[in-house]
Amino acid sequence: MDFPTxxxxxxxxxxxxxxxxxxxxxxxxxxxxxxxxxxxxxVTDFDRARSAAESADDxxxxxxxxxxxxxxxxVKESYDVVGLxxxxxxxxxxxxxxxxxxxQVSRLKAAGAVILGKTNVPLGLQDVxxxxxxxxxxxxxxxxxxxxxxxxGGSAAALACGFxxxxxxSDIAGSLRxxxxxxxxxxxxxxxxxxxxxxxxxxxxPAWPTELDLAVVGPMARSARDLTLLLxxxxxxxxxxxxxxxxxxxxxxxxxxLSDFRVLVVEEHPLIxxxxxxxxxxxxxxxxxxxxxxRVERHSPLLPDLAEAATVYSQLHFSxxxxxxxxxxxxxxxxxxxxxxxNDQSLDATRLRSIAISHxxxxxxxxxxxxxxxxxxxxxxxxxxxxxxxxxxxAFPHDHNPDSLARSLDIDGVQYxxxxxxxxxxxxxxxxxxxxxxxxxxxxxxxxxxxxxxxPMFEDRTPLRLAELLEGPGALSx
Length: 478
Known about the structure:
Its EC number is 3.5.1.4. This is Amidase. By secondary structure, the chain is α+β, with helices and mostly antiparallel strands. It is built from 14 helices and 17 strands. It has an eleven-stranded mixed sheet, with helices on both faces. A two-stranded antiparallel sheet has the order 4-5.
């Protein structure tokens, strides 16, 4: 599935070799031909896309040069787009129409992008798969019996199939990184707070500025350089809040050459094993780093305690999720948590207890998060990037058991609790660090395998630059 990158298409548009109208018609034709089997695009907006493409061509003839001018793109269903429904997969809101565009949608339009439509998500954005009663199931382009990931699974599948050249998603539990890993594309989870999320809110909530804990919005693409292109459009404070006083200036990447990077490789998590296919992907990246002269180490006493990090992440993440549950469900979960054996310290038990956590205990978890952030700052004085898995396995078969706690994850023939795979997402999410998902080859079954490059807070260009260098000669995605 070899399609042009955004950078390549922009060069062709500038050279007059193609028009936006032609690119848009080609993308629409591909969606109409191929998406019935994949179900990545859940809401189409083709008439307005064609009109926007014509406007982009007119603007270019007049000498305009916006950063995404004329590029056909998609957006995750959870973003508000005027004239299109925003449901988050929730049946009660299948007909909800927002009154204004999400800020990131406005930024896409201002940058000249042509929006083809919206991509599929799980119910309430709360799964590692993308399926819901309204729009159905998104299949993995490489094996339709498997998931494309979640919650930005529709966006990742769309990119892998050539349904647009860029997409925007969101991430709190790997929702950008996991679909990219499963579908063989690129994604970047920005530093917490770098890109504002106004207008990506569950319906029918008003699109007011919010500072969500843990959650970010970010870019998805088919190349690392395209991630940087789209991040530069998305990043910067909300003009209704911090933007009143602040301007953004991200520092440059720490290094420009592969040989200057210092990389810590973390292959195993204390709470869940890493499957053989992902270990092989990590090895391919390590081999490329070593061949390029980078300093690679596998152990450091500076690495924060990953088991404690998983507990803190669960407390912060699931307490926030529980706060949005209907009160009857919340009370039931409180009762279940109270009945847990005090000796049960499994991640499932931690997640259940976290839903009903007190504010006092949340404050204690937040203080532990600050301790971890300090530890990461010390680590990044010695290293530039941490390389680690995104999940323990490639894409797994569809599993729509409504009792998600009854699901399991097969890791090399052994079953583990389904949600335990989130611990790798939490490594970067809990302290708010940037993380870039990159392809790292294929499994023996031909499934994509990705890894993540975690960087220092607000130094997003550092893992992005390393991703670009790894994308060069001897690319890892083949």
